[in-house]
Write a structure and sequence with these properties.
The protein has seven helices and eleven strands. By secondary structure, the protein is α+β, with helices and mostly antiparallel strands.
């Protein structure tokens, strides 16, 4: 597939005026694709969307953020956990030297230098100018190179035919998917966005905002309290930052 065709598909996925279009992913399969942003309002690299997660507030066994994400995007078990999508999952980390246990949510880290984007042979995995990493389901060939390249194990593969999909989260058998940072909310609400995981969190542990704006709540908190990048040694500069780890 030529670069021209790939870019055309990307524009079809991201552009438009808010209407829905039915497009063919595979023979006999149609997906509703959300037109995320009006063409007159192109995303810009002056903004870098990110999340700040305070693991100190995450309790053992709490899955509020997972449930919120699943409900927002229509994710559910098909024939059991083996085929269940995991756009966000709860992780338990134990420090072997102190035995201290930390609970935290793990999702796509929306890396500035995203390995999934680098290895994708069709350009289906791509990073928007505002830092959000997405998968174009119409150019994804299901090779799963991105899944192998992701150091955070943040991507899922769709093994089963899906029903009752939501327009804000187009999905399809034989494609890879992951956290979209609620891009449909971002493109509608901008700085006023509250992601589904943050909205569902009863412990106020997740904060969304513009990492490039020094006046945003997320930037002010990071300046005051600091934050940690998971696997910072890889030099990927993820857009998800953590406290308490």
């Amino acid at each position: 597939m030529s670069d021209q065709h790939i870019n055309s598909y990307r524009r079809r996925f991201l552009g438009g005026a808010g209407a829905l279009a039915a497009l063919t992913v595979a023979p006999g399969l149609l997906l509703n694709v959300v037109k995320a942003k009006p063409a007159a309002e192109a995303v810009s690299n002056t903004t870098r969307w990110g999340l700040l997660i305070d693991a100190n507030k995450c309790g053992e066994g709490c899955n509020d953020c997972v449930t919120g994400c699943n409900e927002e995007h229509g994710l559910k078990e098909i024939h059991g956990p083996a085929t269940d999508a995991q756009w966000i999952r709860s992780v338990t980390v134990r420090d072997t030297s102190t035995q201290h246990v930390t609970h935290l949510p793990m999702m796509c880290q929306h890396c500035e230098s995203a390995p999934c984007v680098d290895v994708c042979p069709t350009g289906a995995s791509f990073k928007r100018e505002d830092g959000i990493v997405l998968v174009d389901k119409h150019t994804c060939i299901g090779c799963r190179y991105c899944m192998m390249a992701c150091p955070y194990k943040a991507r899922s593969f769709v093994h089963e035919h899906l029903t009752e999909q939501k327009p804000v989260a187009p999905r399809g058998i034989g494609t890879v998917e992951s956290c979209t940072m609620c891009v449909h909310r971002v493109d509608k609400n901008g700085e006023n966005t509250v992601t589904a995981c943050a909205e569902a969190c009863t412990h106020d542990a997740i904060l969304f905002g513009d990492l490039n704006n020094p006046e945003s709540d997320i930037s002010k908190r990071l300046e005051k309290e600091g934050g940690t990048r998971i696997r910072a040694d890889l030099g990927l500069n993820p857009g998800v930052r953590y406290q308490g780890i």
